[in-house]
Amino acid sequence: MKVFVIGIGLIGGSMVLDIQSLHPEATIYGIDSNESHLAEAIALGVIDAAATYDNLVDADFVIVSVPVDIALTVLPKVLDAIGENTIVFEVGSTKTPICEAVANHPRRRNYIATHPIAGTEFSGPSAAIKGLFQDKTNIICEVEKTTFKLQEKAIELFKNMGMRIRYMDPKSHDKHIAYVSHLSHISSFMLGKTVIDKEKVEQDIFDMAGSGFESTVRLAKSSPAMWTPIFKQNKTQVVKTLEEYISNLSKFKELLEKDDYEAIYHEMQSVNKIKEILNGMKK
Predict the structure, then answer these.
(1) Residue 47 in contact with residue 19, Cβ under 8 Å?
(2) Nearest CA-CA partner of 68 in 170, 190, 180, 144
(3) pLDDT per residue over 189-221, tens digit each?
(4) Where would you tag: which of 98, 116, 188, 206 has the fewest CB atoms within 10 A of its CB?
(5) 158: Cα within 13 Å, side-chain hemisphere
């Protein structure tokens, strides 16, 4: 088995680590514009060797795990180079633009649009984690556009990695992910900004920061090079979620100004059910 990963970071690197465990006979090749990433990935054992697009004709699997703006040009190039029996999956956080970019490609049937809902705030080859996808959801879009034998091949691999499969159209995916992922990252970045700006005159803020602050701003350590293109591609949906979020923040502020602590209590109590929702997701 020959597996190629283009963009050797958290998601692509973690995928090939799992493939190595599932298929010890597989040879893992890496393609990355960053030469130091290639060297690091080889040293860490994430990949076996570096490769080029010319080598993709013999690939069994190709994982495209580059920033979503770069994927718009990389994915067509990959489809141009692959063989008849190669399955390609791109794992970015926005799906409508990438599906539109290859809608009319002659090898569209060799592509399966996926978004594994997994990750950390870290990036690069050293961020790769074996078992990252266990019990995580993998969103698959437009599965009907992938030839059946190749979609079966990809879905079997995803399930063997421990993923749950969910099917969704690209626009619905982008709408829902704006709430549960994109808005979360913006909130984390802006909370971090608020505290950093204040810290310029009040060092005590960071002296008092506890685990609650640390967990809330964890996502602010994520790569801006990855997240800026995501916000750009999903701008319409992200703006809508921000409008709703800002409205809720404004309402909370108004209740404080009015000393309406009973209403504040009920607002927070109504949101406590999020615990039940999240616990249900883990089952």
Answers:
(1) no
(2) 170
(3) 999 898 888 776 666 776 776 677 788 888 888
(4) 206
(5) 28
**Residue 176: other Cβ atoms inside 10 A:** 13
Helix, strand, or coil (residue 88): strand
Do the beta carbons of residue 114 and residue 140 sit within 8 Å? yes
Q: What 8-state DSSP symbol labels residue 90?
A: E
DSSP 133: T
Task: Count other Cβ atoms within 10 Å, centred on residue 130.
Answer: 14
- What integer best gives the mean pLDDT of the chain? 92
* Among the listed residues 91, 134, 137, the one whose alpha carbon sits nearest the alpha carbon of residue 112: 91
Going by C-alpha positions, the residue among 127, 33, 118, 109 that lies closest to residue 74 is 33
Answer with the residue of higher pLDDT: 197 or 231: 231
Tokens of 134: 């266990």
Q: Return the axis-axis angle of helices 235-257 and 183-199, rounded to nearest 10°.
A: 50
CA atoms within 13 A on the CB side of 22: 18
How large is the greatest C-alpha to C-alpha distance in the chain, in angstroms? 68
**Cβ neighbours, 10 Å, residue 104:** 7
Print the SS3 string covering 135-203.
CCEEEEECHHHCCHHHHHHHHHHHHHCCCEEEEECHHHHHHHHHHHHHHHHHHHHHHHHHHHHHHCCCC
Whether residue 109 contacts residue 147, with contact meaning beta carbons closer than 8 Å, is answered with yes
Residue type, 72: L
E strand segments, the chain: 2-6, 27-31, 49-50, 61-64, 87-90, 111-116, 137-141, 164-168
Q: Is the pLDDT of residue 283 over 60?
A: no
